[in-house]
Each structure stands twice: as structure tokens, then as C-alpha cells.
Amino acid sequence: MGKLAVRALRAVLVVVLTGTVCVQALMVWVLVSGSDPEDGSLPLTPLRVITILGIGAAQVALVCVWRLVTMVRRGTVFSHAAFRYVDVIIGAIVAAALLWFAVTALNAPGQRDDPGVTLIMGGIGVAILGVALIVFVLRMLLAQAVARDVEAAQMQAELDEVI
Are 79 and 145 in contact (CB under 8 A)? Predict the structure, then answer.
């Protein structure tokens, strides 16, 4: 991975992380101060709490991506230490899907006249879980690469002994 790509990705990560922290702080302020009155059509407080938690899950994933990019830059991504970050990313995606299902459940009573919206929202939740499965498959590929790297190191050590 080139220096330009690493810098560009890190710039994007910083911008997204800064933006999510600002939005999250504003939402916490609205919850704590009570400055935004609810009109009673939807339970906005639970939706705000779920949104804050969802943003937190995204932030955790962003930090793990940052750490993985650092490992790529150093050439240490094909090690067992990378699994910790990939596992946390998978967990954050699953948490985001569960939070989305909670939003769907909160929104469902208001959609009795049009249940298609609830079905679409459920489909989006399944798609989010699909992203977690894709990352899990990529984790398995990483495991194979780490195993090959360890095997190559052992073969190199044996070759060095012979020579």
C-alpha cells in the first residue's frame, strides 16, 4: 500500500471520525438538555439513544481500520495481532445491525398502514449482517495468509539450516 493511499485513507478516517464525534456530541446534548421537544409521533428519545450507540459502533470500526492500515504500512498485517481488530470490526457491524433492527421495531407500529417500509428496513438490517459476513470471509482469507506466512518462515528457516 503506497504512502499516498495510506495518507488519503487516514485523511478520510479523520474527517469521518471528527464528523461522527460532533454529531454524537450534539445528540447527547439534545438528550441531556431536553431542548428539542418531541411531538409525540415517534419515540424520539430511544431513537436518539440508538443513533448515538450506532455512531459509537461506527467509530470503533473506524479506529480498528486505522490500526489495520498502520499494520499494513509496517508490513505486520499478516500476523495474529490483526485478528483482534478484524474481530472488533465484525462485532461493530453486528452491533450496528442489531441497532438497526431496534430502530425497525420502534418504527414498525407507525407503519401499520404501509408494512412495506418495515420490510424494507428489515431487509436493510439483513444487508448489514451480510457486510459482517463478508468481513468474516475476509478474516478467513487473512487467516490463510497468516498460515502461509508462518509456513514460509519455517521453510526459510529450514533452508537456512541446510545452507
Answer: no
**Rounded to the nearest 5 degrees, what angle is found at the Cα of 135, between the Cα atoms of 129 and 139?**
140
Place of cell 474527517: 15
In SS3 terms, 8-21 reads as HHHHHHHHHHHHHH
Query: SS3 breakdown of the chain: % helix, strand, coil, rounded to 5?
Result: 85, 0, 15
Contact 75, 29 (CB under 8 A): no
DSSP H or E run through 45:
helix 44-74
Question: What is residue 42's predicted lDDT score, i.e. its pLDDT?
Answer: 59
Residue 95 confidence class, pLDDT cut points 50, 70, 90:
very high
Query: For residue 44, what pLDDT band results from cuts at 50, 70 and 90?
Result: confident
Where b means 16+ CB within 10 Å and e means fewer, 93-113 reads bbbbbbbbbbbbeeeeeeeee
Q: How far apart are CA 68 and CA 65, in angstroms?
A: 5
**Which has the closest alpha carbon to 127: 149, 100, 158?**
100
